[in-house]
Amino acid sequence: MLTRVSLAVALVVLSLAVWSAPALAATTYTDSVQAIEISPGVIVGDTRIGATFVGQASGDLDGALTVSVNYAPPAPGPSVTNTIVGGSWVLAVYENGHFRGTIYGAVTGGTAQWNSDGTVATLSAQLTITGGTERYTKAHGTGSFTGTLSHLTFPPTVLGTLQLTF
Question: Does residue 11 lie in a domain region?
């Protein structure tokens, strides 16, 4: 009888420890990004849909980054602020030359603030992480991108910092 009571008490203590254990803390990963615009997208009404950039992320999550954004108003220009109204992104992560999986999600907001001659914009974007593959199958979280978009070269270039927290 004492063994059954001891076993029951041990199970209760163990279950309380498991249920009260703190959740694992999220980790923030930071990468430098260099990218080019491969498509200016198309204008639908007062929104540009699918402006697409590809490039390299270097840092905590080295890999190939693809971003497609939608923004309004649909044309950049001198002192214009374009508001990001949606989009998607994917980062294919490589470690020592070996593919480790993808992390992907949505671009949920942000801005492109153009300089006075409409050639360079300061970028700020908010991201969500909605999933991944391989090593990153359970990835969910948030992210951000800050940087610049230059129309001084062709193709246009993007430089900045990507931060992902999951």
Answer: no
